[in-house]
Amino acid sequence: MDKLFIGPLPPPIGGVANHVLRYSISQNIPVFNEKNKYTYGDFKKLFCLTKTKIYVHTTSWKILVPLLLKLYLNNKGCKFYFINHNFEITYSKPLSYKAWLIFWGLKVFIRKCNVIFVVNRSLIKKMQPIYGNLMYHYYNPFKPPILDSELMIINGYGSEIHEFINDRRPLLSSGAWHLSFTNGVDLYGLDLLLELINRLKINYPEIGLIFGLADSSFNKGYFHKCNEYIVESGIQNNVMFLKEQQELWPLIKRSHLFIRATATDGDPLSIQEALFFNTPVLASDCTIRDSKVHLFHSRDIESLVFNSENILIQTIK
After folding, report:
1. 19 shares a domain with 59
2. Which of 147, 214, 237, 284 has a beta carbon 3.0–4.6 Å from 13's, enabling a disulfide?
């Protein structure tokens, strides 16, 4: 097959990396993993690509530079497809010199691509003022998890996780690649989720939140503050973090409610997984969502509590 994916592969586990992995396996498409140690040989390999269809799932400068050079100096019939997984740098004003350089490079590269795929239709409106009327197409990034691996993943969880999911009812789940901020607020809404558990514990004393955190090395100071809040609020027994390289989907499958409390979003894999397993989903209205997803007002704790309670009343019987 004369195709190539360029993007991340796990670890760390994340929506884009999982998508690239699952799709490449299902379609037998080779992957150039951007996370491998980068050498001059890799630069040369990208510049000399002979694949006719190249799907780019990254905004990494080390990938963009050789691809831009190829497009202008060495492109012999290659077609390029850029998949925008809600990469904020593709539509937000750069805040640093390095970000500005990447933004400029992306702008040139994207305009030279044959097709731009977006994982959420709202991205088209964000991109059009910057890139113009290019050939945009909606692209559903979801590929179901490999179900045969479920038992192996579950057995890999520690005893604390097993005890937690067995003892907590209702069980809520959420997650993040890593803790980060957008426009000064918690991108994944962990702060909102902790406040939600604190409030719901009054009516649901055995409630539990399991929060997947693929990479806990980012924003350690903020993570420490979140843990301080957990202790101060007395919800230590109601919150569990699934850290590092562990798949979350078997726990989403077992949850009474999955919550996506993001401040900005694309079409996240986790929501698609929850819908696939018929787990109720509550998500912020920061973007267009699937019609089966329940919505709450983005960054509004009262709306989050109200809608969570309404769903749990129907789910917990």
Report:
1. yes
2. 214
Q: Is residue 143 part of a domain?
A: no
Domain that holds residue 96: 3-138
| Claim to verify: residue 263 and residue 122 sit in the same structural domain | no
Whether residue 144 lies inside any domain: the answer is no
Model confidence, pTM: 0.81
Give the count of domains, the chain.
Answer: 2
Judging by beta carbons within 10 Å of its beta carbon (0-12, 13-18, 19+), is residue 148 exposed, middle or buried? exposed
Helix, strand, or coil here: 16? helix
Six-digit token string for 32: 């150039």
Name 173's bridge partners: 210, 258
Q: What is the DSSP letter of 81?
A: E
Name the token pair of 65. Answer: 């530079």
Tell me the sheet residues that pair with 294: 282
Q: Which two tokens stand for residue 92?
A: 């937000």
Q: Partners of 79 in the beta sheet?
A: 53
Q: Helix, strand or coil for residue 142?
A: coil
Contact call for residues 190 and 211 (beta carbons, < 8 A): yes
Residue 223 exposed, middle or buried by CB count within 10 Å (0-12, 13-18, 19+): middle
Q: pLDDT tens-digit profile of 179-217?
A: 999 889 999 999 999 999 999 999 999 999 999 998 888
Q: Which of 79, 99, 98, 97 is nearest to 88 (CA)?
A: 99
Q: Quick check: bond before 170 cis, omega within 30?
A: yes
Q: Are residues 255 and 235 in the same domain?
A: yes
Q: What tokens does 30 get?
A: 């080779």
pLDDT, mean over the chain: 93
Q: Reply yes or no on whether the pLDDT at 140 is more than 90.
A: no
CATH number of domain containing 128: 3.40.50.2000
**Tokens linked to 89:** 């740098």
**Residue 207 lies inside a defined structural domain of this protein:** yes
The DSSP symbol for 149 reads G
pLDDT at 75: 86
